[in-house]
Design a protein that fits this description.
By secondary structure, this protein is an alpha/beta fold. It has one domain: Metal-dependent hydrolases (TIM Barrel, Alpha-Beta Barrel). Helix content is 50%, strand content 14%.
Amino acid sequence: MTDDTTPLNKYLAIPKAELHRHLEGSLRLSTMLDIARKHGVTVPVSMMNLSGLVQVQDKDPLTFTNFLEKFKTLRLFYKSPDVIHRVTREAVEDAAKDNVRYLELRFTPVALSRAEGFPLHDVMDWVVASAGEAAKEFNIKVGLIASVNRHESPELAEQVAWLAAEHRTRGLLGLDLAGNEAEFKTQPFHEVFKEAKESGLRITIHAGEWGPAENVRDAIENLGAERIGHGARALEDETVAALAKERGVAFEVCVTSNVQSGVVRALEEHPLSKMIEKGLKVTINTDDPSVSRITLSNEFQLAREKLNIPMDVLKKCALTAAEASFLPDGEKAELVGMLKRELNLQ
């Protein structure tokens, strides 16, 4: 924990809401070593060596390939229902310790199921139950988003979407399309997301990360996106930025992740400040806190001290996240009211 003398403490003190955090990128190193011992997963036995496989290191190349390579090892750990329960609980606990009052945690049922061939329905049940229990235990509000990947089949995405819709009354709020947007188009998924939206699921789409601004337009117009995951390249096309602003689409910005995965060439070039200046709805998020070795407080500190974003603007970003959440209206109003009071915003 951070003590009162550290610079990070003032960012830890900010009550926060987060909309873009992947369960599969939130595993603690100590937990992975424990799982490896118990289940015979072949990975290095030292914390330092394992870290090199599953976390971005200071000397790593800042590329899409290197970033995604970490998940090849991470996928080895989902060995039992107890493991999935544990990693879900710990992800929620870690957010609560970082003064995140509301967390939308997204997870990829297909990725969690594949290590041991678990049924998708069971995986979804385990995550939903574990997240609900952890939310009560750690006094944090949690919503869930089911994620599907562009490189998977639309039939598989449809299966996940229907299962997600069945879990809506248990806190599963939305559907996300993620994965390699540079090489895979969204067209095969248009009907799946249309039906998901009609079922009551809310829609967020990874776009404008490794692909151009046009992908943001596509996500809004053809997939019904209410929020955009990342969207770092949205400003490359003024008409796309204008469309997002007109529709009130919120951006789930992940600064460190964008630098580590090569979306932006350097931290100083990240468009977060410009997105705010253009009047876009901007939220600040971790993406994969364990992979990136960060917390949400770290990201707020980075935005303030490296990108020179004023503290009052950062607080508004925290409030925007609550306002752009997929919570039902009554719960959202309660969350927004609480954050307004604690952030001293009117």
